[in-house]
């Protein structure tokens, strides 16, 4: 690999990891809102998912720092995609947060290095499992925006 | 209108010359004695397609056998059909090897005869639908294990393929992992 392409690859890695980190920051903030509207086992699930996103955030920050990069900072507050006044809206917000996290890690999967592909794929799977659990059903293509992969003819 | 006629004539001439170009192109490829080795994407796609076909055949077998599970399993099978369609749409077969690939073949027949073809890899994830055990609980845990194994196989091949295919495979693997969770939990939902 020439110096220029190595630099370009490194820039793509940093950019994809920073985007994943920003999605994790948003998820950490969002699960705070989600948990505020839930009780019992649903609250326990939200707390567990909230912690999972904090761990993922910390890990991305450490990765970026060890590469000599300044990790993207969390915003003070985030605009919610819809008003959240009860458990149903809270669970729907959790699904949205996980979809965004999955999409961000799917961009990490497109990086050339085996290490980042595996890291991204594991994170897409984890987000997909959490999303399916909040949604109450599975989807065919986690991480892709709805309609991004139109049904092909068999 | 003369200009229009001229334009049409040019278009017609271009269209007529295209098949000639294509034919000479084919001759060019055929003239190289050994066909090019399939790109990693092609080999990986073929095995992923075969794996999805087997998975659908397994769901077919369980749904045909126990009607009580049909409502729960049909949505999962429908997602596998979407996986299969996407994977097939990515497979661009060079003309020379089209006969060997036959990607359009659907697993119409059930039972051990619906073998996935020579491209499937050995191992537990490639066993046929004839292996689905009897009994509701046993069939569910069989499907659950098969989903997990299929996801693991896809993830193991990520490094070998193009970025775009890696994304599709990571997404399909994630979907299969959620299937395994849903089958284990007796449903996908949290309370």
Question: What descriptors fit this protein?
Answer:
heterodimer, A: Ferritin, globular, B: 191 residues, mainly alpha, Ferritin, 2 domains, 6 helices, disordered N terminus
What is the string of helix and strand elements of chain B? HHHHHH
Provide the low-confidence segments of chain B as ranges: 1-28, 98-126
Computed CA radius of gyration of chain B, to the nearest angstrom: 22 Å
Provide the domain count of chain A: 1
Let me know the average pLDDT of chain A. Answer: 93
Structure in words:
The complex is a heterodimer of chains A (154) and B (191). Chain A has helices at 3-36, 40-66, 87-109, 114-135. Chain A is mainly alpha-helical and 154 residues long. Chain A starts with a helix and ends in a 19-residue tail after the last helix. Chain B has 191 residues and is mostly helical. Chain B folds into two domains: 1-34; 40-185, Ferritin (Up-down Bundle). Chain B is built from six helices and no strands. Chain B starts with a helix and ends in a 6-residue tail after the last helix.
């Amino acid at each position: 690999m020439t110096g220029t392409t190595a630099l370009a690859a490194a820039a793509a890695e940093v950019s994809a990891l920073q985007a994943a980190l920003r999605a994790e920051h948003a998820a950490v903030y969002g699960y705070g809102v989600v948990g505020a509207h839930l009780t019992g086992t649903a609250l326990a699930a939200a707390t567990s998912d909230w912690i999972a996103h904090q761990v993922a955030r910390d890990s991305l920050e450490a990765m970026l720092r060890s590469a000599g990069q300044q990790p993207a900072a969390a915003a003070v507050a985030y605009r919610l995609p819809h008003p959240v006044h009860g458990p149903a809206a809270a669970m729907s917000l959790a699904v949205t947060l996980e979809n965004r996290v999955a999409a961000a890690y799917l961009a990490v999967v497109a990086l050339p290095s085996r290490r980042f592909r595996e890291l991204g794929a594991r994170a897409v799977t984890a987000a997909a499992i959490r999303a399916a659990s909040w949604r109450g059903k599975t989807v065919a293509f986690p991480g892709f925006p709805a309609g991004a992969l139109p049904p092909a003819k068999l | 209108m003369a200009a229009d006629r001229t334009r049409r004539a040019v278009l017609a001439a271009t269209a007529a010359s295209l098949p000639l170009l294509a034919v000479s192109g084919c001759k060019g490829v055929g003239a190289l004695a050994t066909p090019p080795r399939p790109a990693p994407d092609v080999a990986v796609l073929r095995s992923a397609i075969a794996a999805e076909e087997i998975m659908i055949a397994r769901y077919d077998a369980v749904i045909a056998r126990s009607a009580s599970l049909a409502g729960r399993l049909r949505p999962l099978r429908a997602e596998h059909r979407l996986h299969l369609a996407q994977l097939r749409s990515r497979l661009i077969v060079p003309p020379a090897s089209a006969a060997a690939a036959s990607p359009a073949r659907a697993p119409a027949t059930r039972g051990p005869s619906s073998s996935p073809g020579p491209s499937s890899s050995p191992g537990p994830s490639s066993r046929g639908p004839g292996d689905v055990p009897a009994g509701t609980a046993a069939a569910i845990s069989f499907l659950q294990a098969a989903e997990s194994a299929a996801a693991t196989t896809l993830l193991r091949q990520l490094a070998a393929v193009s970025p775009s295919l890696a994304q599709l495979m990571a997404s399909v693997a994630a979907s299969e992992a959620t299937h395994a969770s849903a089958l284990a939990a007796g449903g996908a939902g949290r309370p």
